[in-house]
Design a protein that fits this description.
Blueprint lengths: L1 E6 L7 H17 L4 E3 L12 H4 L6 H13 L2 E10 L2 E9 L5 E6 L21 E4 L2 E5 L8 H9 L4 E5 L7 H15 L2 E5 L2 E4 L2 E4 L3 E3 L5 E4 L5 E6 L2 H10 L24
Parallel strand pairs: 1-2, 2-3, 7-8, 8-9
Antiparallel strand pairs: 1-14, 3-4, 4-5, 6-7, 9-12, 10-11, 12-13
Helix pairs in contact: 1-3
Amino acid sequence: MKVAAIQMDLAWEQPDRNYQRAGAAIADAAQRGAILAVLPEMFATGFSMAAAATAEPVDGRTHRFLSETARRHRIHLIATASVNRDGRPQNVALHYGPRGEQLAFQPKIHPFSFAGEDRHFAPGSALVISAVHDFHVGLAVCYDLRFPELFRALAFRGATLLVVPANWPVERVGVWRHLLVARAIENQCFVIGVNRVGQGGDLSYNGYSAIVDPLGAVLGTARDNEAVLCVDIDPGLLTRVRMDFPFLRDARTDLFPCLWDPADPDRG
């Protein structure tokens, strides 16, 4: 299955410009045969803390853009947006299917307190698994990458593809690159990490989006420029890795019951 990581420069708090840029990149990805395309975190606005100005209704402009674009190109799209639900802004990962239907609504579990995100956006409190063809997709957002228990919980709930839209600044991009590989290896999953480039607020971003296989091999990476990174990922490889190296079966779920899904104890 071909997937695309869309590494963009984001115009600060200018959705119309970002819709135009994203639309062109998504069209490119679809033309190249991508089944799934992933955009950076808060692709419509940049990582703005002005939630009062940027947070949209759940059926707002970004929802309509993603839904209509997914339907037009018959592609799966994953992105995040600032969404106002029940009167509280949240930074939400959204998954739309090729008919324009919303398949997942996953608020960021760990708002980035170091930048004050926790003062403006409410955290998520549940995990969502969606699907793209033969893959079960677990969604996380940027800072979530630092919390391995989240990814283990997604793997135990059946995730085989972990998707991480981000705005990860240049000063810590080395950590970003290492953690993407670690999350793939320790959960025997494919990982798609999509960062941005350019300036956002007072921060600089230099990309290094990457697609990683379940053994930790980096199948493709972008550098520090805008790019549409397309890579084929093979569900058969994941099956073989988990059969040949059944490490997840040895996890001590008795000691860490909060990570295990009691509704389906055989998953993972």
